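Bug #2210: token dump truncated for FA complementation group M?
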Amino acid sequence: HKSASRQFLDEEAELSQQDDGVSSDESEDEEEELSSSLAQFLNDDVEATQVLDDSGMKGVYLESVRSPALGSRYRMVHREFDSVEIFSQIPEQDQAYAEDSFCVGEEEEETCR
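Reproduced locally. Full output below:
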């Protein structure tokens, strides 16, 4: 089994060396087109054709601010808080807590002398 797979790999290696780097689904013309388009893409000597002046840039800015691309698709919706939906049992207040417990009663009031 190993010799059959090794023989297959050897044959494929020989065939790939004969084709000089061009596979069966490629042609040499396509390779030249690809390299020329890649060279055009990487060429930094060419000046950009879509340079906007100040008024054009201001127009692009105002358009983006006044009419956002997303519109109102993701607008926040504020819903009322319903404790029944959150708690299975509504928590009770501490029984030891008395309303206005921070106030001191008249009998406990200390006088300053």
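Output looks complete on our side. The first helix runs from residue 2 to 18. Marking as cannot-reproduce; reopen if the truncation happens again.
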